[in-house]
Specification:
InterPro entries: HAD-like_sf, HAD-SF_hydro_IA, HAD_sf, PGP-like_dom2. This protein has 233 residues and is α/β, with parallel strands linked by helices. The protein is 42% helix and 10% strand.
Length: 233
């Protein structure tokens, strides 16, 4: 760590204080976006259907209801959304029980945010049962709170999860930096008014106003995030 990191609440430029960092989970902190697709392929194979690889970009990063609903409609599988949700969550839990790799730079970023006491939240479209299985690997002490996709009226791409996280931390969404890996998550964060760092995992994400695209979490640190708030105020 360097001494150039501003203390929490210090303005690096007028109105540019970083109040909190809100982090997506799958594909951002843990290398699991591929796990979801593999499980979807396996479950639908057991139902007698083959998934088209082009559908992967449709379902990535979205809520379970959207991705599972799309796959049922696309394949014509004879299964209800509720039944499929259970199978997908069960299959995913089995995968992460076997291996749960962190994304490069994730452990270092979480440690740095904790060292400088930056309020941090985990904000995921995954259900609470999945988040609670992943948190022990990430370190629950790194997060003041977590928001699951089945705990908000509308999950990503709607702003509700990020608005709920900001409210829970007692901060202004405009003063929050969000780290996301999918267009769906970026859309949710921007709709909430947050500054976004996009680290694409599966599909491409283009730079835009209040959005910075980087190749890896390894280039994201607290100095970077403070600078982001200054540049995009």
């Amino acid at each position: 760590m360097t001494s150039t990191v501003p203390a929490l609440g210090t303005l690096t430029a007028e109105g540019s204080a970083l109040q909190a960092v809100l982090l997506d989970m799958d594909g951002t902190l843990v290398d699991t976006e591929g796990f979801w697709w593999d499980v979807e392929v396996e479950v639908f194979a057991s139902l007698g259907h083959t998934l088209d690889d082009s559908w992967r970009h449709v379902v990535v990063g979205g809520p379970m209801t959207r991705s599972a609903g799309f796959l049922i409609e696309a394949t014509g599988a004879d299964i209800s959304l509720a039944e499929l949700t259970v199978l997908l969550n069960d299959g995913f839990e089995d995968r992460i029980d076997r291996a749960l790799p962190l994304m490069p730079g994730a452990a270092r970023l979480l440690a740095e945010l904790a060292e400088y006491e930056i309020p941090t939240a985990l904000v995921s479209a995954s259900h609470r049962r999945i988040i609670d299985r992943v948190l022990p690997v990430l370190g629950p002490q790194h997060f003041a709170l977590s928001v699951a996709g089945d705990e908000v009226p509308r999950t990503k791409p709607h702003p509700d999860p990020y608005l709920a996280a900001a409210e829970g931390l007692g901060v202004n969404p405009v003063r929050c930096a969000v780290v996301e890996d999918t267009v769906t998550g970026v859309t949710a964060a921007e709709a909430a008014g947050c500054h976004v760092v996009a680290v694409p995992s599966v599909g491409p994400i283009t730079p835009a106003a209040r959005r910075t695209v980087v190749p890896s979490l390894e280039v994201v640190d607290l100095t970077f995030l403070h600078g982001l708030m200054t540049q995009m105020r």
